[in-house]
Design a protein that fits this description.
4-stranded mixed β-sheet; alpha+beta; homodimer
């Protein structure tokens, strides 16, 4: 059985939703970032990176959201969360998720995790100051050229959708004006109405 | 036929090597970063992100290194560049590549691309100052806990190998001491001796 290590308000929500959507048998373990639990030896033994998500499977431990999402889609093919028989379409799904992890999430991380890339408090504050612009630019690109309807890839609901939803939940806190992103916001609303999403969020915030 | 848009000394080298390794029929187009060609309308029509790599296929355009590498592996299964029939092993490959794009490459980017995340020159200089530490920490984690021999995944040469090789070529310029990374450096040397790698590098530097 799968065990998901997650923390509230982090990107682990995407994998949590995907596990729920496919009907997986899984349990969860909440990691408390407030007490820095992700840096303690017990958790570093699970994930030496000291980050969430991490997922314990019968075969071993997996990390990194795009890899975990693709694994969930491939392990539960009947749920059709990715176009598994079409390498080009699968690559489009993966390219979207790769952009989220390597560009959008990274831009966002400069608000709360600037210490990863600078020590000086002024430099960290300067990074924070630019977050509305850098995160806004990423969402602007998604709004204009990467987002179909009703789901990211069009008619098919895929592993792109819970991941975009997860990061779109942060945009107001990042100082991005949602009025400029009507399609992203519509997508977020559609996602929030899905039973699996409601169930997972209720559990994480309980 | 595949057309790869690349720039020298960038992560597009990984996809270029993978195309060569699988024996793909492909052509290349060099994008000149010195003249900011990646931001010109002609290239933005190919890739609105203004980055490399981008790959034109018969089905359309793909971007993002991890997605392109998996696409190359899936499109040329006889080359066995990924464990395509084993979702867990495939996820391990993808997790490695996802770490490279979202953490290691991002740490590196703070040396030359700090303007993405801050405007103030002092803040940008402070980011540059921390690059040896942040990039070094990523390579240290790879050295200690993510790298098998002779290849990243062990006996099988996969799409992880050209990607790690590509980023490992930058570590001296990032101020990281290679003496602390004997296994990463051994891997880089093994990679540099492969005929496909020699051919691709000769073409890119010609």
């Amino acid at each position: 059985m799968i065990k998901l290590f997650y923390a509230v308000h982090t990107c682990s929500l995407a994998s949590h939703i995907a596990l729920e959507e496919v009907g997986a048998e899984y349990s969860t373990v909440r990691i408390d970032f407030a007490s820095n639990e992700q840096r303690k030896p017990e958790y570093l033994a699970i994930n030496p990176k000291g980050r969430v998500p991490a997922m314990v499977t019968d075969r071993g431990i997996l990390t990194e959201t795009p890899a975990m999402l693709a694994f969930i889609a491939q392990s539960y093919p009947q749920a059709r969360l990715a176009p598994l028989d079409d390498p080009f379409a699968f690559a489009q799904v993966q390219a979207f998720n790769s952009y989220l992890c390597s560009t959008l999430h990274v831009a966002h991380a400069h608000r709360m995790r600037g210490h990863r890339w600078a020590d000086d408090p002024f430099a960290i504050a300067e990074m924070q100051r630019k977050v509305p612009e850098s995160v806004g630019a990423c969402f602007g690109l998604i709004e204009r050229s990467m987002l179909n309807e009703p789901w990211v890839m069009g008619d098919a609901y895929t592993i792109c959708d819970p991941y975009l939803f997860t990061l779109a939940n942060w945009l107001e806190a990042d100082g991005v004006d949602p009025a400029n992103l009507p399609r992203v916001i519509d997508h977020r609303r559609r996602m929030s109405e899905r039973p699996a999403v409601r169930k997972v969020i209720a559990e994480e915030l309980a």
